[in-house]
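Q: Hi! First time asking for a complex rather than a single chain. Here are the components, and I think there are two in total. Is that enough to go on?
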Amino acid sequence: MPYLEIQDLTVSYEKNKPTLKRFSLNVEQGELVSLLGPSGCGKTTTLRSVAGFIQPDSGQIVINERDYTRLPPNQRDIGLVFQSYALFPHLTVFNNVAFGLRMRRIPKDELHSRVANALKMVGLEAFADRRPSQLSGGQQQRVALARATVIEPQVLLLDEPLSNLDAGLRVEMRQEIRRAQQQLGITTLYVTHDQVEAMSISDRVVVMNQGEIEQIGRPESIFAAPETAFVAGFMGFDNHFSATVESAQDDKITVKWGGAPITLRWQSKFGSPTAGARAEIFFRADNASLSAGSEAGGLAGSVILHTFHGNEVQYLVETAVGEFSITQDSDSERFENGAAVKVQARTQKWIAIIE
Amino acid sequence: MVSRWMYISLVILYGFLLGPFVIIFMAGFGANANLAFPPQGFTLDWFANVFETAQFIDSFWISLQLGLSSTIVSLIMGMPVAYALVRYQFSASGMVETIFSAPILVPGLVIGFAMLNFFVLLGDMSVLTGLFIGHTAILFPYSVRVISASLRNLDPYVEDAAVSLGANRLRGFLLVVLPNMQAGIAAAFVLGFITSFNNVPVSLFLSGPGVTTLPVSMLSYLEYYFDPTIAAVSTLLVIFTVVLVQAAERLLGLSQFV
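A: Yes, that's all I need. Here is the structure of the assembled complex.
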């Protein structure tokens, strides 16, 4: 029995234009699941529906075998962390964290020890008497995390909690959130538009697009084997081109690359491919290499642009099937703009998507 | 060159702004029987005369009561409007904002005249009630604006945060939003009170026999007498306003809202 069940959730802000279309997701107890997608994909709508701030048109939300669908948000026992932190500016850190416990009429002694523990967990014991405005962004988000978890909620919801922090701090806070979540064993939904963040923090990732789920899976499997073109694009497969399937086996297909056949893994939501079908081929910038145009094999092209990035050089190469972005180790052979090159496929990490 | 011209224009500007006050201030201490400049001699008689003139004392109390009551009521009415304008985007919100700003944009004389006619049509109404309604109406847009400004500085998600922690909507508002509106409410109070206390055009039309505000009674005093008493009242009024604004600035940082 999953701990958090979302069944066929449909939400529309405008008539007949649902933001969320029959969204279903099961989350196990203690699991951290990310909702990943571009803005407007419905991930925040899902989160706010679980929190009770949005009434769905249809569908059901069940937490720990209790139907939450029609429960008002203040009776839901859910911890929420906002992108903007949403700390209470007029209250001290201590009173911010104590707010939820006061609403629950927790006796004073217990309240004090629980707030102290929560502040200790996020390393802010020394800041109990400060106002939020006297804290840095990272510290404010730690207070928000302590405030949301001190009530020992059934489910913790985080809405882009790191987007207002700078890059270095984001990595640190990410680890801190994950550590706290595992330490408390709290079932968590985490909304983000950052694929690296989603992969590094989650047990499972839900990739969403236009109110629907594109793919659910462990970070490793989504990263390696996206099932749709959208997921592949979102997961950093920078290059793609269309090809005709020459022949198909159970788990491989063969397409032409510069005249020669290459064999690729395939993914499809619509059954096995057959010879003659169209396939979208995806590969990342570091899964191809360049060699001199005079060499045998590979796909002929010419360098349009090259940019130096320190450890690597990025090339934009024009070929008969499209433009590709390819990164090379900066110690390897360099090519100038206009140089004739061959693009050599390293196909073990390529993926063919049949749609 | 630029800085010298700026300097000169600043001096001219301040000269025109403050010069009249300096003249009135000095004239209030002059011994002449008529308002004159430069004053001859020195006396505090005119200030004493202010406190002996029943007209000024009575109208001062009326202005004070009127200022306090209309400010408080305009705040109570302005708060929910400001809250709705800031928190909810609705199709008519632009129009509502414009309508609520109208009393700032329409000349005070027009408002006063219109209200007088309106109240006469409504029939029996005491002068004080008319003044109270008129002042509340002109203060209302100030309340809405100043309170809106303070609300706009507050993260809209703090209410959701309070609700997610177990507070119902009302408690969330009382425990989280209201405390953060305090400075704005206080600023609106000071601004509203001063606006009411110094208002002439609306009070002029709505005053009645024996019931009038301090600025209006000063005006009618001027019609009959031209002695420095009026300069003394003016000086007291300026001091009163400056002290009030300074206190508000010290306590609340008024300038961040206005």
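A: Chain A touches chain B through 25 residues (CB under 8 Å). Let me know if you'd like any chain examined more closely.
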